[in-house]
Amino acid sequence: MASMTFGRYTFKETYVHHLDARNKIFLMILFMVGIFFQFHLWSTSLILSGLYIIVLIAIMIISKINFFQLFKSLAGMWMFIIILMAIYIFIPNNNYYLPTAFSIGSLQVKWDAFCQSGYIVMRLVLMLALTMVLTSTTKPMDMTYAFEWYMTPLKVVRFPAHEIAMTLSIALRFIPTLLDETERIMKAQASRGVDFNHGGLFKRFGAVIALIIPLFVSALERSEELANAMIVRGYDPRAKRTRYRLLRFSWRDIIAFLLIGGLFAGIIVLFVFDKKDNPLDLVNIISSWFGYNVVGF
Amino acid sequence: MGIKIENVFFTYQKKTSNSTLALDDISFAINDNDFVAIVGETGSGKSTLAQTFNALLIPDKGQVVVDDYIVSYKNRKNRKVKNLRKHIGLVFQFPEYQLFEETVEKDVAFGVKNFGAKQEEALQKAHEALNKVGLDESYYKRPPFELSGGERRKVAIAGILAIDPDILVFDEPTVGFDPSSAKDLMNMICDFHKNGKTIIVITHDMDLVRRYANKVFMMEKGKLVFEGTPSELFMHVRNYDRLDLPQVIKLALALKEKGMDIDISKIRHSDDLIEEIKKWRAE
Description:
The complex is a heterodimer of chains A (297) and B (283). Chain A is mostly helical. Chain A has ten helices and two strands; from the N terminus they run ααααββαααααα. The radius of gyration of chain A is 25 Å and the shape is globular. Chain B is α/β, with parallel strands linked by helices. Chain B folds into two domains: 3-230, P-loop containing nucleotide triphosphate hydrolases (Rossmann fold); 246-283, no CATH class. In chain B, 42% of the residues are buried. The interface between A and B is medium-sized, with 20 and 26 residues.
């Protein structure tokens, strides 16, 4: 189970670690929305993606995140990535103006589709890296506090913000415990001759049942115990409470906000200028700064 | 038969900042039909060691030899590991949490079936095992989740017993039990021993050690610090107050200090102490 370390919080003294969780979540969402803007011209999208990648690499270096971890988790998703790419490549596209790579029967596969699938995978990697930055630099507890903070306005309409945040934080807290439990039950069942690694589909399914049911039983029992312990200590979800840890907005947050917010604002401006009949051509604009004029890209 | 442990090393979470050396150059042998106790504080590596016996954990260095099966890093992908596990039954701490079938008999038969037995044979063996742990016919069809904690543990032990291993390893079998059910359970384990099984019990209850074991191994911080008989251990532990001595031994030691000439190595039960006192008075 030790292999499931993707994005696990590890404390380091860095700028990103000290940022306010609320700010980090907000900026992450901004960044993600930015990633999902699609421009009419390929070249423009590509240049901006390059910009995102550079910014993200910079963030990862600042927050001292192991790049190796990201690649490892990507390697674990190879099946998903291949299926995703295949779907994008084989979606029928009958645009005559686009060059065809090859055709199977009446299905024409365009070069464009390859680019499109590569673009999607790149977005996926960017998203993954972003969430990794967030989860490995923010304490899970701070994250739930931040969620609660964002949901506070909804309290007016009796939305149970605190309860949801509490449930979330308990769930996060018990992930390692349940992983340990899983390992323990696996070992116990292995002693009874269950083989989790070999055997046919049917046999493996049986093995999983022998793991899941005891796991659920113990999780339910544990939750009941926890609920009782909370009641005994006078827990009341509606009561007003103070907090041990406080989220604070500091000068760091303002700087980060200005930087990422500026990037996002820039992208919005570009997007507004990107019209269908007059697409924004970044290649041309940039090259014109250097005195070149590229036509017909 | 028996188990031979040769220079075993094991580290948890290798290559990370919080790696811990759980087993540090452990070597000893357990003979056929021994009743062995492995004692030590929490975190001394007892349970880790037990898990290397049936290849649930593979030693980084060194080997554990059970019959002709070798548990070692080199041999880690051996497909015959199932044979080994049929040979060594490992009852984990709180085994009641591994139950999952709808009825008690099905759960006990589950292990037997995994090792290749047919349904009827498995059920028959399950019934035998259940009777051995003291659960009668009325329990066969009941769902295990309806039973009390103690009964569930018995069912789980029966689940291992039904496989009919030659060596039984119990990891803290009496933890969380009241004294009388703990005694029942230990007497049961003793019966298995009398029927020719090799028993290994991991515990820190020195009273159990005194009563039942014929060989004790003591571990501390991953190292084997003592091996010998229980009475030797008590003499050893005396100048070493990490483990709590059994009450009888404490009393005997106190009497001896006051000038009563008692042979402590002979004391296993309170009756032995009475005998010794009588002998001393006669003299």
